[in-house]
Amino acid sequence: MRPLLTGLANIVLLLANTLILIGPLLLIALAKLVLPGQSARDTCSRGVMWVAEFWAENCKRIFALLTPTHWDIRGNAELRRDRSYLVISNHQSWVDIPALVQAFNRRTPYFKFFLKQQLIWVPFLGLAFWALDYPFMKRYSKAFLDKNPHMKGKDLEITKAACEKFKRLPVTVVNYLEGTRFTAAKRAQQQSPYRYLLKPKAGGVAFVLSTLGEQIDAVLDVTLVYPGKQVPGFWALLSGQVPKVIMDIQTLELDPALYQGDYENDPAFRLQVQDWVSDLWLAKDKRIEQLRSENHD
Q1: What is the DSSP string of 160-209?
Q2: Are the C-beta atoms of residues 227 and 200 closer than 8 Å to each other?
Q3: Closest by alpha carbon to 284, among 248, 258, 252, 244?
C-alpha cells in the first residue's frame, strides 16, 4: 500500500508542478514568437530556460521529499553554466531522464535533445520545445534520397541552420548512442560485443558533432548504473522503490578532428569517428562492471 500511495502522491505533485508552470512558459514562448529583434527573442529564450530549470528543480524537491532514492553523482563539481557540453550516456530506463535532471540542472545549461521535425506540430508541447530551442531534425530516408539525389545533405543544412542560435547562448545536448534502452534481449539480438551495452551508433554523434562541434566546449561521458538485479522503471522511482542511482561523469576534451570531416562521404573520417566511439564504449562497459562490483551487484 505504501508504494502505491507514494506513487500517487508523486504523480499529483509532479502534475501540479507542470500545470502551474506550463502557462508562464507558453506566454514567454508566444512573446518570443511575436517580438521583433534578436535581443528580445534571446531574452525570452533565457526566460523560458529559467522556467524550465525551476520546473526541474521542483521535480528534484518532490523526489527528495517523497522517495528514498540516493542519487550517487560523481564528477559534476566543476561544471559551469556558461559552457556548452555534449552529453553521451548509456540508456537503460525512463529513470535516466530524472537522473540527468539530478546531475545537471542548474549546473550546466538546460539540456536539449534533437527532436523529429513532426513534434513541432504537437499542441502546446511543440511551442514549448521550439521556445526551449530544441533542434528539430528533418531526416530523409535512403529511398527518398535515391529518388531525389539533389536533396542529399539538405537535412544536415536544415539542422545546422536551426542550431545557429547556440552561437549566442550556451547549450547542453544529450545523445544516447545506443538509440534505444538496453535490455538483455536486445543485446542478444544485436550480438553486442559489450556486456552491459548495446552497439553504439556513431552516425548519430557524428551528426551532432558536425552540426555543433565548434560550439561544444567539452564532452560529458555519463555512465548510469542501477545497483540491483533489475533495471527499475519509472513507476519504481515514483513509488519509492529505487534505493540508489549511480551517475559517473567524466569530462573529456573534444578533439576538433572529430567534427572537421564528412562522415557520409569520407571513409577514413568515418572510421576515425567510429574508433573514437568504440573506445568510449569499451571503457564505459568496464566502468559499469567496476561500479556494479563496488556495489555488490
Answers
A1: HHHGGGGGTS--EEEEETTSS---HHHHHHHT-SSSS-PPP-HHHHHHHH
A2: no
A3: 248
Q: Per the structure block, which three cell numbers stand in for 210?
A: 558536425
Q: What pLDDT is recorded for position 275?
A: 93
The pLDDT tens digits of the residues spanning 253-296 come to: 998 988 888 887 888 999 999 999 999 999 999 999 999 988 76
Question: Residue 44 corresponds to which cell in the numbers above?
Answer: 525570452
Rounded to the nearest integer, the mean pLDDT of the chain is 86
In Å, how far are 58, 92, 224, 240 from 63, measured between CA atoms? 9, 20, 18, 9
Of the candidates 138, 140, 127, the residue with the CA atom closest to the CA atom of residue 163: 138
Q: Which residues of 223-243 are buried (b: 16+ CB within 10 A; e: fewer)?
A: bbbbbeeebbeeebbbbbbbe
The structural domains of the chain, with segments of one domain joined by +, span: 69-294
For residue 287, the tally of other CB atoms under 10 A from its CB is 17
Chunked in runs of 10, what are the mean pLDDT values of the chain (297 residues)?
Answer: 90 93 88 84 87 94 95 89 92 92 92 74 72 71 67 65 71 86 90 92 82 87 90 92 94 90 86 93 94 78
Angle at which helix 96-104 crosses helix 38-66, to 10 degrees, equals 110
CATH number for region 69-294: 3.40.1130
Do you know the residue count of the chain?
297
**What pLDDT score does 76 carry?**
82
CB 245 within 8 A of CB 96: no
Q: How far is CA 78 from CA 50, 60, 254, 272, in A?
A: 21, 20, 17, 29
